[in-house]
Design goal:
The chain is an alpha/beta fold. It contains twelve helices and ten strands. It is globular and about 50 Å long.
């Protein structure tokens, strides 16, 4: 609705797809304005906020979504406050502050950070521009798949996607459902979702065919962007997982650096969370053999997670 997006867009989208090797395609979403795929959702959500007259937003994030919301809020002239868990990469914090957003670093886990932020929302009536709860955000992440089809003229056989709170995962599934409904494709590709082995409530749930994420005690992980112990849309993610025969696997923590270096040696410098997806792909390849026609998202730039 409205034309506000024209003045809010920072040039997000239309990221290139490159051939990495004979079996792997990479969609270079770290080439977004704030160096992560979260710009897809933030552009749409903040445009919506402007359209309905919101003048102040709050959000909790592990870093990338907070950076995106802060940047697009700045472009839209909307006041912004971001809550981050302790241990968030300093460069992500500095990027958020550069957009004149107020930053609160919250002690404890990512999940505790979300609870503190939501308390402020409840007590002060702030608009919760959250990438997990707000359905408008997923209208943006759906564009990942729309672009893939526009660029390739098809959907690859295998799609790998990281999953913590599921913002890209849910966007991908919703877009593919629209493709099925409209007759663009006849069947779902094989989707493999990746969690950190140190924080895998969804992967563990699939072992027992549970409809709810398993209660876990998250351990530290380099894949900070998917270190979500209590995914708020966990039941929805699992419902999609069983409905479309999606596989949820874990990335080996001790191979994240190796995977990051392997990509960097070919000119692709990504953050550790993104490297975790490639580490999981490599492990699956070793266990099960060649995985042809695979698409992996390069979600965030490496400079954002350098300590």
């Amino acid at each position: 609705k409205g034309e506000y997006w024209r003045g809010i867009s920072l040039g997000e989208g239309r990221t290139p797809i490159i051939k990495f090797d004979e079996d792997v395609l990479l969609k270079m979403d770290y080439l977004m304005p704030t160096l992560s795929f979260k710009d897809r959702g933030a552009a749409v959500l903040i445009s919506h906020c402007k359209d309905i007259g919101v003048d102040s937003v709050v959000q909790d994030s592990s870093g990338n979504a907070g950076n995106s919301i802060a940047a697009y809020s700045a472009k839209a002239g909307i006041d912004c406050e971001i809550f981050l868990p302790e241990g968030t990469s300093p460069k992500k914090i500095n990027m958020i502050k550069s957009h004149n957003a107020r930053v609160n670093v919250v002690p404890g886990s990512r999940d505790n950070c979300a609870n503190v932020c939501r308390k402020k929302v409840d007590e002060e009536g702030k608009y919760y521009a959250n990438h997990v709860y707000n359905p408008i955000f997923y209208e943006g992440t759906k564009t990942y798949i729309y672009e893939v089809y526009e660029q390739l003229g098809r959907i690859p056989e295998n799609i790998f996607v990281p999953v913590g709170n599921g913002t890209l995962f849910i966007g991908i599934v919703k877009a593919l459902e629209e493709f099925i409904e409209s007759g663009i494709i006849e069947k779902f590709p094989k989707i493999t979702a990746v969690q950190s082995e140190n924080c895998a409530p969804l992967a563990e749930a699939t072992i027992s065919n549970s409809n709810k994420p398993v209660e876990i005690k998250a351990k530290p992980t380099m894949a900070e962007g998917i270190a979500i112990g209590e995914p708020m849309r966990g039941e929805e993610i699992l419902e999609y997982t069983y409905k479309y025969d999606i596989k949820i696997i874990t990335a080996p923590e001790n191979r994240i650096i190796e995977a990051r270096e392997a990509l960097a040696e070919k000119g692709i410098y990504i953050e550790h969370t993104t490297a975790a997806t490639y580490a999981a792909y490599l492990q699956q390849k070793e266990l099960n053999g060649r995985i042809k026609d695979s698409l992996l998202p390069m979600c965030g730039a490496g400079l954002k997670s350098d300590h």
